[in-house]
Amino acid sequence: MGFLDRFKQAFGSKSETTDSNETEYRDPLEEQMKKEHASRQQSVIDEAMAELEGENQQLRPEPVSDSPPDYDVGAVEAEDLLVEEETESDHSLLNIIEHESVEEMGDHLESVTILGDLPEEVEL
Questions:
Q1: Among the listed residues 90, 96, 87, 89, the one whose alpha carbon sits nearest the alpha carbon of residue 68
Q2: N or C, which end of the chain has less CB nearby within 10 Å?
Q3: Where are the alpha helices (DSSP H) in the chain?
């Protein structure tokens, strides 16, 4: 490739020199905007630290979910876990509610509208 490089140098166009005197545009308000941004950031940080350091913090109690009695047996010791008992293997039958009549379920579906493409009107 040495021959091609010498050929390009001899007959090729000379590279243009660029003016190094060109200056980049600088916004005259840049320094002021930097200071304002830094002060806004500092005020947000100060507010957050004041909130964290405040003594009047009240922790919200976490909602306690009451698990169904069929699943929760209360306090269990390690030995209880090692005892082999005949346990109920079909968990799909737990917490089944049987209604004697439809009236006791309430009328919460009376105002329901059916959305979608149906060939005919449906009554509830």
A1: 96
A2: N
A3: 2-11, 30-53, 78-82
